[in-house]
Amino acid sequence: MPGSALPDHEETMSKIVIVGAGQAGSQCALSLRQMGFEGSITILGDESHLPYDRPPLSKAVLKSELEIERTVFRPAAVYADQGIELRTDCSVSGIDQAAKTLALSDGSHMGYETLIVATGARARSMPLSDAVLERSYFVRSWDESLALKAKLEAGPKDKPLVVIGGGFIGLEVAASARLMGWPVIIVEADQRLMGRAVHPRISELCLEKHRAEGARVELNTMSGDIEATADGVALTVNGERIEAAGLVIGIGALVNTDFLEGSSIYSDRGLVTDAAQRTSDPDIYAIGDVAICEDRYLASGVRLESVQNAIYGAKICAAAITGSAEPRLEAPWFWTDQYDYSLQMVGLYSPELTWIERDNGQGSVTLIGVDGDQIKAGQVINSAQDFAVMRRAVDMQLAVDAASLSDTSQKLKSLVLKK
Length: 419
Hints:
The chain is of the alpha/beta class. It is built from 9 helices and 25 strands.
């Protein structure tokens, strides 16, 4: 298919425009081609890099186990070969829904017939002075990861790295820093780690793991009086004044919807869509971290930040646009790696479910969330086999004998996937 270079004039038309060159945007463009869409496709990305994989940024990239260049999904030639124009360093500043045009950062405009918003989310910051922010680190983008990596490699390691936030990214960075020999202090405002996402037993085990690996963890704690020093920051933690080499801020995310302000679909909490990822404007779809699907299996009305959600939503969107068969039903799933703990989750944590624990021994545990005779969620530490069983059970909505699930004398597979 021939390339689709833009003509050199102020306003151009592209049948499908995808705003956002992350996992969701890249996947959607390629899925559209795979499903037979032959019109023009343009991806607009505000970073200078090709679309890349974000999960390694807080783990393998920081520890130099993976060169950051290897996080790129596909070389530029793949997009060109598919007739997909990928424009990097191109942000969108506004939209005119009536005219179906986008205002671009270079002052030009681009028209669309169908718009797909895949802008994702950015790290939430804190009300800090400019001097403190200069010594603070976020880890949601390529450039942010490289900045923290340079700090961790440069040292010296005579002062701790303070991580604000005990969610997935904060804990992954903390684990990476400890494995690189850094003293680490984790400050979490909640009473437990990853409190919104995991069962209390998982929180407890991960807390024990971080402390066993030498990290100091402060729960129910807010950092205070943060100020810049000559070579880092100083802050108060539980009444103690701490001199730190720097801050890592991992306190959540804000959706990138600023360019839609004033439009009928704008929200600073996420763009609401139907099951086909279509917004209230029939010509605009939203996918990935920025979307809130109101009709999604086990995750209706929830904004999800995961690779699986980005890929699944992109394929659903492409199928809706092309009239192709939808991908099979798939429950949301997530993972995080911290030290030698591999935590994998399917479905969403809810205290309203009945949770059954299976101690698999050797540092492995499986938590199963059931509603009556159906498995609705699973959370597994260090058992890929149990996680595979959990995914299949939740996806297929299998009926089980819940009372039998705690019997560790039998493999979970034999209890759940009965012939």
